[in-house]
């Protein structure tokens, strides 16, 4: 698996396995988070969960999961592979040994570079996932706009035009094709700027707390960390990262859910100002409780699976 002293492929493979496990665990709450941040008509988290269940049954929570299951596995492979290999490259450059422990400054640089690299692949993945998760509300908004454009001389009731059972996208491939046709290649990267604002500091507050907590939970420097300690450290790191990233995540979700047919945001700044003026400062913390709850099991599963997979691969 090892191609050189400072570059390893096993981190990418372990990250791929960890990504798959985290998607299955975290997607239902991710759907709730997206609906709360970019949707309409939800009073709170519980109301959102009940509304999705009543209108769409349990399958509503797994809308758009097939695409993340395939793509986020690759995305997490890139994230973990980039972070681990960047650490080794920094250690080799600064200390002459890729196995030398990184300082806090080294971890900060590696984390921020990982966040920057992740956006290139993660922005289109997130956009397609959000468009698929938001299908019900996007169709309804389009139909209401159509009804509002009907001339006043007609007596067509609004409900006869609204067809919420219709789906804008038949699946992820059709979604990508539709976005490319209507918005061009740049359409797949809508919200990428907001994603950079979320992920560059977000990954710093993801990997650094995880590393610190692992060091604190380790009995001594020579012993290996217990799986329960890895699970706890990963879960706490995930909650910390997602809670602090929520304001930027709200902006990103709104930008990405803002389809061309009913586009209302000209850019990141316009989205921030418009959201603040219409809904107040609290809008930027919408879904924060879901992020905190979802971040724990999702990240705990991801880090534990990553570490165990890495141990297994390196033992072969």
UniProtKB/TrEMBL annotation:
Q: Name one Pfam family in it.
A: Mito_carr
Q: Which residue ranges does UniProt annotate as crossing the membrane?
A: none
What is the annotated localization of this protein?
Answer: Mitochondrion inner membrane
What's the protein here called?
A: Solute carrier family 25 member 48
Q: Which GO molecular-function terms appear in the entry?
A: transmembrane transporter activity
What are its GO cellular component terms?
Answer: mitochondrial inner membrane
What PROSITE patterns does its record include? SOLCAR
Organism of origin: Sander lucioperca
The Solcar repeat units are at 6-89, 102-216, 225-312
- What's the superkingdom here? Eukaryota
Keyword tags:
Membrane, Mitochondrion, Mitochondrion inner membrane, Repeat, Transmembrane, Transmembrane helix, Transport
PANTHER family under this entry? MITOCHONDRIAL BASIC AMINO ACIDS TRANSPORTER-RELATED, SOLUTE CARRIER FAMILY 25 MEMBER 48
The membrane topology noted for this protein in its Swiss-Prot or TrEMBL record is: Multi-pass membrane protein
Major location, coarse class? mitochondrion
Record carries keyword Repeat: yes
Q: Which family does it belong to?
A: Belongs to the mitochondrial carrier (TC 2.A.29) family.
